[in-house]
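Escalation from tier 1.

The customer reports that the assembly of two entities below gives different structure tokens on two consecutive runs. Tier 1 could not reproduce it. I'm attaching the input and our single run for tier 2 to review.
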Amino acid sequence: MSPAPFIRPLTDALQTLFMPFSLYRSLLRREIAARYRGSSLGLFWSWITPLVQMATYTLVFVFFFKNQWSQNHSEPAYFVIMLFCGLIPFHFFSESISRAPTLILSNQNYVKRVTFPLQMLSSVLIGSSLFHALIGFGLLLPGILLLQGQIPWTVIALPLVWIPFVLFTLSMTLILAGVGVFIRDLQHGVGLMLNMLFFLSPVFYPASLVPENWRVLLWLNPLSCCILQTREAAVTGVSLNLEMWAWQIGGSSLFLLIVCLWFQRLSRSFADVL
Amino acid sequence: MSSEAPFIQARGLGKAYAPLTGWNALRHLFLLPAKEQGQEFWALRNLSFDLSRGKVLGIVGNNGSGKSTLLQLTAGLLRPSEGHIKVQGRCSALLELGAGFNPEFSGRENALHSSTIYGFDRSEAEARLEQILAFADIGDHIDAPVKTYSSGMYARLAFAVAVNADPDLLLVDEVLAVGDVAFQARCYRRIEEMKSRGTSILFVSHDLNNLKMFADEVLLLDRGQMLAKGDPRQVIDTYLERLANTPALEPQGRGQPDGEQAGGRFLDFCFTDSQGNAVQHPLAGERYVAEAEFEALYPMEEPVFSLQVQTLQGVVVYDTSTLMKHQPVRSLKVGERLRLRAELTLNLAPGPFRIGFGAAILEGELPRPLNGTPQLTFEVIAQQPAYGFANLYSNLELHYEN
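Tier 1 run:
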């Protein structure tokens, strides 16, 4: 009945990301609440920020630059929607990744003062970024309905599209959090990389703008992959390529598993160097 | 789990720190062992002891003797470099009070959260909240952000959370020094109670008299080595003897010149007993001497010199100056030197303090500080324990009505 002996460490490694769940919930609640603690508008900022960003980008790209999308589709509404589809994954990714290198450093109490499953810091960070992404979708979907008159039925694939992406981002967060303890320069490098990624991912241009022979790179980059798939599911109504998705989910799960085991081993020595 | 097995078992326990630099840091990231260890530093070495259920082990030693490392190893926060330590059961560490507290959140929220860190789920944590609140006794403040708390209130709440976690092992690191006498009494009563219910306790404290009272055994650490272990009275006496005979270490007992600064510089600052031996552990109530040399680097019109004693937290315990003493000081020419000597009676409560000289010039009515000596730290030893800063040598008489 018991699982093979080598399965146990694997499941244990994954479990400590979210278990004990009451601790995870408590940390996540604090993480989300802490951001706006003391500000009078509170959680309202989570709604205002994306709206103001959207307005700014729309102004710049629709009216100042003449974007490709706005040439094909005369109304700027289409551009706004496509842009929003790109911004939600990007913000989810950059919010998690940019804080990862200092995640352990800024929570030294959890390393040196109490026994604590340190990998949970990463999953809490992901949880809070995901919470903000959900708020983004809460704005996006009614927006699509309003501006396009309908939402394609393929939208039901959205959660599927996001699972591998979330797993991948979680793995990257774990890696950066672990390496960041030993290599302090990491946070500067990560900031730079995110800056590049913002322009190299199809956030505010369609995949068709990328030269044909380079386009495969977009599908190899999990971030642009998620952006393109989110657009297909929520706006253009292209149904999910299940074969490709199976590869994504398999690859990201395996990646997370390896990273998790690595992080558990590495985290034993955190207290030595902090 | 057999009941005969000791609750904590440490054998040949050692912890070394080696700086991880260059390639070794990279190798470490790929989980490879470091190549040719650099100069490693042994914080603790060759330590063996047992602790059974319901016993209290006190740990004494100077700063840097490995006390905190031992607690962290016991809590499983550090991995031993050699030997092993086994602990059976749930451990609640008071390594630092309120480790998981967020100052922006209320006391109630922090108490609930800390309970979940100790491994309780939400409903268990809520159930415990009442006990915690009763013990901490901070009234309506419980719903105010923790950042508004006084250090005493903060400590009370944090201690309440830790002891109400029903741990099998409690690690106490010098945390009971905060809070008022009534609260300390409550803490000790609570610790006694936990002890009688089978909780084992590792107790680091500078409060030697309390250790004599509470501990079943005391372990004396010195630079990572166990020097003695056993009967609290004997070990503590050994410790006090050693403290009195320890020659001051160079960087601690004798100040280094502070370098060139505005006005002038201090040289050769030392804190000694009346025979001129540098001391680190003076006895309360005795006379000691602080001495330093001052060299004026600029002409100083109306110099003022001062002597200050502070707690480690920076609370000024005593401050006097030539100005306050209406002592005339003549102006100093460039390169002129003078010797400062202050003899003082240490009417201080046991504990660590800092001492230092300062130089200032008079601007109108007020002295403008220029620079000071590096401050020397010393730890007052007293025959009679007391809390606070000052030693008032009071007695306590009891007169019964009939």
